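Practice problem: predict the structure.
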Amino acid sequence: MSTEEKSLHFIEQIIEDSLSNGFPQDKLRFRFPPEPNGYLHIGHAKSICLNFGLGLKYNAPVNLRFDDTNPAKEEQEYVDAIKEDLKWLGFNWTEELYSSDYFQQLYEWALAMIKNGKAYIDSQSSEDMAIQKGTPTQPGVDGPYRNRSIEENLTLFEGMKKGDFPEGSHVLRAKIDMASKNMLMRDPLMYRILHRHHHRTGNDWNIYPMYDYAHGESDYIEQISHSICTLEFVMHRELYNWFLDQIYDDSKVRPHQYEFARLNLNYTVMSKRKLLQLVQENIVNGWDDPRMPTISGLRRRGYTANSIRKFCDIIGVAKRENIIDFSLLEFCLREDLNKKAPRVMAVLDPIKMVITNYPEDKEEWLEAENNQEDESAGFRKVPFSRELYIEREDFLEEAPAKFFRLSLGREVRLKNAYIIKGESVVKDAAGTITEIHVTYDEDSRSGSGSEASQRKVAGTLHWVSIQHALEAEVRLYDRLFIDEAPDSHKEKNFLEFMNPSSLQIVKGFVEPSLATVQSDEKFQFQRLGYFNVDKDTTEDKIVFNKTVGLKDAWEEKGKKEENLLMNTQKEINKYVKEKDENNANLILNSIVDNIKSIDNYSLIIQTIVKNIKNDNNSLLFSNLILHYSDKVQVKDIEEESLTKLYTMSLKSQMAAVRILAIQNLQNDLNNFSLFETQLSELKKNEKTEKVLELLNELKF
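Answer:
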């Protein structure tokens, strides 16, 4: 096998096998079939890149087909947005088609199936149908209308089409096998009544085909050779093939369905229903909110089409589900923007700095490189004057040894400018620093070649000249959720994991070269990250969106929280061994503060469960987290683990463990009664006064 063949993903290998077995290459045809019931998200990008990528690889047509069979949820707005996203990603479709183009043909095939005894009208309620359908371990049973006559079925179906019946009164079902192990084969629905306006066919139809019926038949009409979908449709393949069996003509191409693993990205949700909820409840500002995982949201935030295509290429095409780290998507973006984005200076949390030995009426225009990664980017001029803004965090009046920024008595370089030295500060009545006074070395200008300019200093700061600075609104976006899998926790609403700091709006100041920026232009604010010009920008107001930082702040935060919990557990040992009560309380307060500062829900749960073992210090740690963390509640812990924690803790030789276990049980009404006997026994034998006081307060 050649190196190239080894590098094929499994879908490409399937196509290669088809061609090797005699399938004509000119009959290859693919499609991307979105439902126009929401905006495309990053998960769809994987499918888009796969289908259109196959089209490019095999020089085969790729259709864009909208599976618009549910007018209750579909809108023209979504159709337009999907087309815009595809074009932005860099893909062109061969034909723009709609399942609604085939409504008449689908209806005629349904009539033929009724006449052939393969479909019937069911008039049961949806609840009765669900009962009659059985369970995965129990076969279904025939419904009361399964053996209606062909004539009655045809009459009812015609009445459904004309609009003679209300919604929910009748459905058309395929007549397959109510005892099938595959529940999807137990007489699935083909048509339902919907008196709704369709975005393309208007009010022409009162019945609409179900997705499972329309999808495969539409593939057949379009002569799609390889129908590629995600793994949740594996069980649908048998039904897909059954519907094709009813209409297949061996003179035509028969579509075949193949499934690949969908894209699962941490720190986000991919459900259209949940994304729609975020929009409808105004939790975000529309489908293109830069915090949304929609393609339009990513585009507005500043993502590039190239970075998304690269991301999809790196994660590949697999048969097994896995979760991709959001950091990989951000890495692909940084790699792309690093090569393309011009460097500029902006200050987002400004503090005034005065160069006291710089002439008051003097200004200079200094040369600055636009992008050191791109030689063709050239240089620009930036103004320099006596009064500048720098970032507030870049100055400390008295700094520790490893603080490599400006402080009193210390030198730093101003980017593209001079070396300065901190001399003094001006404070307001509250003691807040309002101005920093520095001096500069006139001979140290960057690029001058002087001996002073070669001098090594602690660090380099960005800045803007106050006299020339432009005010800008800067929207600092962060991840929308603080948990890795916000919609995976039982009995927890995904909205409980919203990141309260996902958007902060600040007034910043930028260099004057940005006076004429246009929407969607991208820049690197030096030392701060990459920023995109938002569409809200006008002649009178510049708006920037933070796209991504220069480093992976979330990875750093995750490691810090993991390390903090590890170090906190070590503090437990100190707390237990400390004999002095005041010192012990100080250690305990520090432990509690650390616990309260942890945001990562999954990490907290894992730590609690991991420490449920026959060790007093570990049990103390678990109980402390459960008691003091506001990110987790007793109902979030699996019942078996929680029972084990209570049982072991109440038997612990350490009084502090018993106290916390009792306090946690007081807050857990669901489990309190289960431990009344153990608490009563403990009360009889307890010797520690504090534990007895707590037990005497209990009512059982």
